[in-house]
Design goal:
Oligomer: heterodimer
Helix content of chain A: 40-55%
Pfam family, one (chain A): SusD_RagB
CATH class of the largest domain in chain B: Mainly Beta
Strand content of chain A: 5-15%
Radius of gyration of chain B: 31 Å
Number of strands of chain A: 7
Number of domains of chain A: 2
Main location (chain A): membrane
Protein name (chain A): Membrane protein
Organism (chain A): Parapedobacter defluvii
Strand order of the largest sheet of chain A: 2-4
CATH class of the largest domain in chain A: Mainly Alpha
Largest sheet of chain B: 22 strands, antiparallel, barrel
CATH topology of the largest domain in chain B: Maltoporin, Chain A
Keywords (chain A): Cell outer membrane, Membrane, Signal
Number of strands of chain B: 53
Order of helices and strands of chain A: HEHHEHHHHHEHEHEEEHHHHHH
Chain lengths: ~450, ~1000
């Protein structure tokens, strides 16, 4: 044995090496801090519980402030000619700009929703959990496909063709740029997503989550937007025929007043809670009801609603207050405290009007009038006096305007029927509407960063 | 308690392994202590050579050993020492030339010659002190004594106009709110641009802890009483800041609080001041008839029917006018009280103080009260071992008023200015009326119940051992602990309360920021010529910030204000933690004080980065040449100081980024029901991973010249610097169609170049009359050198940065005037396509001043003293958002106020004006450069007149001074808004600067005060 091994210098050297090693080690563990509020991406979807939380997150995203929580819904009803803003606003004057947060927000919120759905669709098949049955897995994947379908439908009806992204995003640079598809390609995708969802989802009633009925209702709307009248009729009929589950509730206000939620009127509504408030309520309500009263219905639509012959029970969509001798009108669809008002996505009344419009397009006037009258009668009105196909289509468009005054409908209806210019200029004579305004502008960053082609005119 | 115990535990355990191992051995050398042998006793006195007045507090050190003492109040001292006569004493005293005296017997009288050069002045630098004459780096020292009583947001605001190159704007008129401060420009887009603050060696958090809808940021620095501050040093160049490594890039502000001195009789200082403040300017609004007239003019131009008619609202000329600003504004009262006691015995010195301050806002509901006390103690255990502690405990209460609120609710400004003046404030029965979508201002100022209470401790404890006469070991543990409690209650007379039937929030934030440091400092002189200093040290820190947020809505009635009474209760919690481990070293060398060299190095390891990028290394080197000490200038009587300095180095930045920013994360709190209404937990993607995330690095080159004439009666300091930031931490925007809008990355380069000039002059120095002037001016050119794609801020993308422009650039339609014939606005058609689209917006300018600075004059005449300070800024522009909202051409009718400036609109062909004709087309664009105004200014920042009552014969009172100080008494500016320095500070984005929205202006104040020394 070599005694030199034990000499003082060597011991010191070893001790020093150990000390340095311990030091680096200690520092490293000291510097390793894991977050508590969030978890690593890889652990996000691994078992039944996390799959369930992820799909709930997807619905929550659907109700995000910029999507069905407010932003996207506003794009439906604000540029309608019927909304007057009390504060500075460009959308109500159809002064559309690519830099406007009103477009940037919803676009981002919709793609955010799509990304969650992509994650679920991509990861669900790999989840191995004995507690997860095939039906449960299929339901969740089916719901994700429905959410993706709704999201792409909402994009396509607003902006036309948009980039189709069907893979989960883990890396900002991984996928490279995705160009815009055409609107038809997007609608085709929506259709195939819905067909998949239809096979995966159960035939049950759940008014806040997707089921087979929800899929049919969206299929009916998609067919209407694409002018596929027979499909529009067949799908809406499938929903309308579920008379035990869905019906036009009476009186008109019964589907939203008195804190009602998930009534038989509703095919799909996004739920809100005290933890997750609906932003539309504050923006819409009168000051006296604690709202911000950012916008109000214009005089023509107010008088239409207040006239029993044209508005009927739909006058319940209006609230009013007196201040200094003048009457202020406001929307009344969202009114609760706390603001747990649902956001309505698919209602049975729309299915009747879809079928009515499809029939009218096919010149099946009696059927068309019958469906239209269902909606009118429920609102407390007399049967329609329209006789020709054109009159009926006009009446249906007008019925849509009042029935869905505060929902994501009017601008889309005017844009798809090509009547935007006529109807807006009638209500706001100092505006001139151009054809290009039938599409929203692509948000500016998507053009500059994402290389997307801007819609013409912007 | 958990946290403190936890911290101690962490510190001790980590410390034990990480450092004591390294220093332990050398520490053990000091363990043996010997009783000193008494070989001589020396009694003496130190006096001024000219006046023979005794000098109290002069330091005497026996050369070659560590034994030192200070003179007492009579200028006397005593040495009882193991040294035998003769030995050499080194006598130093601020303002006098250092003298070496050989003591060969007792007693002795030492005469010191005054030194006006100031080169012996001691300046605090990173981990030590240096003589000003030996500085290599660029360090500015401020003695804020004269301006301490100004009611300011926080003490750092007092640096305004006093330090070249430090751009400051308090500017919100909200007491207790934060300060905009940039030392030599801004180096970062998404990481913080605030300097590092170190108070008595304690690293402190300067970031607002306000968590409830941070309408305005508050400043934790406001918790420190300015009365307790002795000096403030600003470290600017690489030689000075690089020792702070990853936190130094934005400059370092070192604050030294007052301490007692050994052998000093107890001295009591009493300070009090009382004052008033008011808004120097209000917003100029149209009257009711003017408002109605403009609305009708717009409607006529647009072909719309009149709304102000006899049978509806009444004719335009019949409209009344109501003044809401009178309800909001108030004359603010200020009160300050402070008592301090400092003194020391042979082995103990202490400073104790207690203070209380109350500041009201010039807008009702806003206010800031602070009470605190301070205990600083230093104790000599033996000649070689010292321990000490610094403690500040304060309690600050902020009454919070929201200026903009969220969406108009609770917003003071909007409830006051934004409502058309013809609309009544109350109805016939005196009930408050609400208009547009805003609260009633009377309800707001009477019913607002929002406050934040901060219980804040800043303190440290240190031990210091002179292992060898020239080798000093120091260990410090410091803590910045802040409990920040926010309480809000909105009752049903306010919109927020009305919406939710009463709304209460309570947010409880705890910020724990502890630091442990060891330094080993060796200084020696070899052969009387080579001065060498070596410093090595380590630094370990941890930050833990937790927040619990509770909210209740739906209350039984307005009398119940606690969340327990609410029908709906929600709770939220957040948790953030990070840690840093560092090793640093500095080597200094100078040859005869003539050729100076300094090198620093710091290695930082941060928990904010992934393992592979965890460590960052920050070196710097600097040199200086005292040309005036060269033989060829030695005989020159005019030039008393000439020094050339140069430095280059790298500092880093990681502040302001998330603690877990590099990870790909999914967050929770995204619940949704499975069926029915019961919400169940949900998750969703939160952020994209970026394992490559690393430090932001800023290299800085500095060349400076110090020039002194006539015994430094005129001294000039000039600096040129160039800072270049690479790997800038950037929230990179990505196309939203990938499902995210951005991710944090190191992409981007920013440069700052600038020139600083300070001139100090002692114009007159007579017995009864002195006059000195300080002037400083600085220029900083900021430029984004590399940016992958433009980034926009604010909802109308008012601000946008892109490669080649400066930060805080405004992206607008370039306004070129109003067509004289049509009255239409002419905008530049940038892309020349004949149409005005968003593609025609461009960067029209930025918010940076071309130059800025301050001018201070100090005069004393017999018992009077005067201080007058001007600050100025030239070439900075401000986005007048208030005016933009107030000049919308009458199109918003009853929904928005119209500013009086709208009356200048074009009316008929030939009119020359900048305000276009009232049509929708002229007012549908808000992003127009005519609202981006020149906000240059010259401001009389302070004017102080003091009178010291002659009390030569009093045995009790040493000094009694009365003073009056006025602030912001006069200003000249082309800016049309309320204040050219005002700004928005909404917390969410530091990149929004030069934006005037809904801020109360800087108040004009007058205060009267008394300083009493016993």
């Amino acid at each position: 044995m070599n005694f030199r091994f034990f000499n003082y210098t060597t011991i010191k050297r070893y001790a020093y090496a150990i000390a340095v090693a311990m030091l680096l080690n200690a520092c490293d563990s000291f510097l390793e801090i894991d977050p508590k509020e969030a978890i690593a991406e890889e652990l996000a979807i691994v078992d039944k519980t996390s799959l369930n939380t992820a799909i709930r997150g997807a619905y929550r995203a659907l109700g995000a402030a910029d999507y069905y929580g407010e932003g996207y819904v506003n794009l439906g009803f604000v540029p309608s000619g019927d909304v007057i803003y009390n504060v500075a606003d460009n959308i109500s004057d159809l002064n559309f700009r690519s830099t406007d947060a009103a477009f940037i927000g919803p676009w981002a919120a919709i793609y955010n929703t799509i990304n969650i759905a992509n994650h679920i669709i991509e990861k669900a098949p790999a989840v191995t959990d004995l507690n997860l049955t095939d039906t449960e897995r299929n339901t969740i994947v089916g719901e994700a496909h429905f959410i993706r379908a709704l999201a792409y439908f909402d994009l396509a009806r607003g902006w036309g063709g948009v980039p189709i992204k069907l893979s989960a995003t883990n890396d900002p640079d991984g996928d490279g740029f995705t160009p815009r598809s055409t609107r038809d390609e997007v609608y085709d995708l929506v259709e195939s997503e819905l067909q998949l969802a239809e096979t995966l989802l159960p035939e049950t009633i759940n008014r806040i989550r997707a089921t087979k009925y929800t899929v049919w209702a969206l299929q009916a709307r998609l067919a209407l937007y694409r002018g596929q009248w027979p499909e529009a009729i067949s799908y809406s009929t499938k929903v309308i025929d579920q008379t035990g589950s869905y019906r036009l509730v009476t009186p008109f206000r019964a589907w939203f007043r008195d804190n009602a939620v998930q009534t038989q009127e509703s095919i799909f509504e996004v739920a809100f809670s005290a933890q997750n408030l609906n932003g539309m309520r504050t923006r819409m309500s009168l000051l006296a009801n604690g709202g911000e009263y950012r916008y109000r219905p214009g005089d023509p639509v107010v008088s239409k609603l207040r006239n029993p012959a044209t508005g009927g029970g739909r006058v319940a969509l209006l609230d009013s207050a007196q201040q200094s001798g003048a009457t202020q009108y406001a929307g009344a669809l969202y009114y609760r405290s706390p603001a747990t008002d649902p956001s309505y996505v698919l209602r049975i009344a729309e299915q009747y009007l879809i079928r009515a419009e499809a029939h009218a397009q096919r010149r099946e006037l009696a059927e068309a009038k019958a469906d239209l009258d269902q909606v009118r009668v429920r609102a407390g009105l007399t049967a329609s006096t329209a006789t020709t196909a054109e009159e009926l289509l006009d009446a249906i468009l007008e019925e849509n305007r009042l029935e869905f005054l505060w929902e994501a409908h009017r601008w889309f209806d005017l844009a798809r029927t090509g009547r935007l210019k006529e109807k807006i200029e009638e209500l706001k004579p100092n505006l001139t509407i151009q054809a290009y305004q039938q599409l929203f502008p692509i948000p500016v960053d998507e053009v500059t960063l994402g290389g997307l082609e801007q819609n013409p005119g912007y | 308690m958990y946290s403190i115990r936890y911290i101690l535990f962490r510190a001790i355990s980590i410390q034990a392994i990480c450092t004591l191992l390294l220093f332990g051995m050398s520490f053990s050398l000091t363990a043996q202590e010997t009783r000193p042998l008494i070989n001589s006793t020396l009694d003496g006195a130190v006096v001024d050579a000219a006046t023979k007045e005794p000098l109290a507090g002069a330091s005497l050190q026996i050369q070659g050993v560590t034994h030192s003492t200070k003179t007492n109040n009579q200028g006397k001292f005593q040495f009882i020492t193991g040294q035998r006569f003769p030995y050499t004493l080194v006598v130093t005293y601020v303002g006098y030339k250092t003298k070496e005296v050989v003591a060969s017997g007792s007693p002795i009288t030492i005469e010191l010659e005054p030194d006006a050069t100031g080169l012996d002045e001691v300046v605090v630098v990173g981990y030590g002190e240096q003589r000003k004459g030996n500085l290599v780096g660029s360090v500015a020292k401020v003695n804020p004594a004269t301006i301490k009583t100004i009611p300011e947001a926080s003490f750092d605001t007092q640096l305004q106009g006093n330090v070249a190159g430090v751009q400051i704007s308090g500017g919100t008129g909200i007491p207790g709110s934060n300060t905009f401060i940039r030392v030599r420009g801004a180096t970062s887009i998404n990481s913080s641009n605030d300097p590092l603050y170190i108070i008595d060696g304690i690293f402190v958090n300067s970031t607002s802890l306000q968590s409830i809808e941070a309408d305005r940021n508050t400043s934790p620095l406001a918790d420190l009483s300015p009365e307790d501050i002795e000096t403030i040093e600003v470290l600017k160049d690489a030689a000075a800041i690089s020792i702070y490594g990853s936190r130094g890039a934005n400059g370092v502000i070192i604050v030294s609080t007052k301490r007692g001195k050994f052998d000093q009789k107890p001295t009591i200082n009493v300070n009090t001041s009382q004052g008033l403040g008011w808004a120097p300017k209000k917003w100029d609004l149209t009257t009711g008839p003017e408002h109605a007239m403009l609305v009708e003019e717009y409607r006529a131009n647009e072909g719309l029917t009149p709304v102000f008619t006899a049978d509806t609202r009444g004719l335009p000329e019949d409209q009344p006018t109501y003044d809401r600003q009178a309800i909001l504004n108030q004359t603010a009262h200020y009160q300050n009280y402070g008592v301090s006691l400092n003194g020391g015995s042979q082995n103990t010195s202490y400073y104790l103080s207690v203070n209380h301050s109350e500041q009201e806002g010039i807008w009702k509901t806003m206010g800031f009260n602070r009470s605190g006390f301070k205990v600083n103690v230093d104790q000599k255990i033996t000649d070689r071992i010292r321990v000490g502690t610094t403690n500040t405990l304060s309690r600050s209460i902020r009454n919070i008023g929201r200026a903009v609120g969220s969406g108009g609710t609770g917003a003071l400004y909007q409830a006051t200015v934004d409502i058309p003046t013809y609309l009544p404030i109350f109805d016939g029965e005196g009930k408050p009326l609400r208009w547009v979508n805003f609260d009633n201002v009377y309800s707001l100022v009477t019913e607002t119940d929002n406050s934040a209470i901060s219980n804040h401790y800043i303190g440290n404890i240190y031990g210091e051992v002179d292992i060898l006469p020239m080798l000093r070991f120091k260990s410090t543990f410091s803590l910045d602990y802040n409990n920040y409690e926010e309480n809000e209650y909105w009752n049903t007379s306010l919109l927020r309360g009305l919406a939710n039937n009463g709304e209460a929030t309570r947010s409880y934030t705890t910020s724990n920021y502890w630091v442990n440091e060891q330094t080993l400092d060796y200084n020696t002189t070899i052969a009387d010529k080579h001065n060498v200093g070596i410093l090595v040290g380590n630094h370990i820190e941890g930050t833990l910030i937790t927040n619990t947020f509770a909210k209740g809505t739906n209350f039984p009635n307005n009398s119940y204000t606690l969340i327990s009474a609410a029908a709906n209760q929600t709770v939220d919690e957040s948790w953030r933690k990070n840690a840093l481990v560092s090793f640093f070293s500095r080597v200094q060398y100078n040859f005869e004080g003539k050729y100076l060299l300094e090198a620093t190095f710091r290695a930082d390891g941060s928990s904010k980065f992934s393992k592979k990028n965890r460590w960052g290394y920050f070196p710097a080197i600097g040199g200086a040449w005292r040309i005036s000490d060269e033989p060829f200038l030695a005989g020159n009587t005019a030039i008393s100081n000439l020094k050339l300095r140069m430095s280059y180095g790298i500092a880093g930045n990681q502040n302001g980024i998330g603690d877990f920013a590099y990870r790909g994360l999914w967050g929770a709190g995204q619940g949704y029901p499975d069926n029915g209404t019961a919400e169940l937990p949900g998750t969703a993607p939160l952020q994209l991973a970026n394992p490559d995330l690393r430090w932001e690095k800023t290299s800085q080159f500095n060349v400076g010249l110090d020039f002194g004439l006539w015994n430094n009666r005129l001294s000039i300091e000039a600096n040129y610097y160039r800072k270049y930031t690479t790997d800038a931490l950037l929230q990179i925007s990505v196309p939203n169609y990938i499902g995210f809008s951005s991710y944090l990355s190191n992409y981007g380069e920013i440069s700052n170049r600038g020139f600083e000039l300070s001139i100090n002059s002692q114009n007159i120095r007579k017995k009864d009359f002195t006059w000195s002037t300080s002037f400083n001016v600085a220029q900083n050119k900021n430029r984004i050198e590399v940016l992958p794609s433009p980034m926009s801020f604010e909802d109308r993308s008012f601000l946008r940065i892109e490669q080649g422009v400066a930060l805080y650039s405004y992206w607008l339609y370039n306004f070129q005037g109003v067509d004289r014939e049509t009255g239409d606005m002419i905008l530049e058609d940038v892309n020349g396509d004949g149409e005005i689209t968003p593609a025609d917006r461009k960067v029209v300018g930025d918010a940076w001043p071309k130059f800025f600075g301050g001018l201070t004059n100090n005069l004393t005449y017999k018992q009077f003293d005067f201080n007058v300070q001007f600050t100025f800024s030239y070439g900075n522009r401000l986005w007048n958002h208030n005016r933009m909202l107030g000049e919308q051409g009458g199109r918003l009718d009853a929904n928005r106020v119209i500013f009086a400036s709208q009356l200048d609109r074009w009316q008929e062909p030939g009119d020359i004006t900048d305000v276009p004709r009232l049509t929708l087309n002229n007012y549908s664009r808000q992003e127009v450069s005519r609202f981006f105004e020149d906000a240059s200014f010259l401001r009389l920042r302070t004017l102080t007149v003091g009178y010291t009552i002659p009390l030569k014969n009093s045995r009790v009172i040493d000094r009694l001074r009365l003073y009056v100080v006025g602030t912001n008494l006069w200003i000249t500016t082309p800016y049309t808004g309320a204040d050219p320095e005002t700004r928005i500070e909404r917390g969410e984005n530091q990149n929004i600067q030069g934006y005037d929205f809904a801020s109360p202006p800087t108040p004009r104040t007058v205060q009267f005060g008394v300083n009493l020394t016993l």
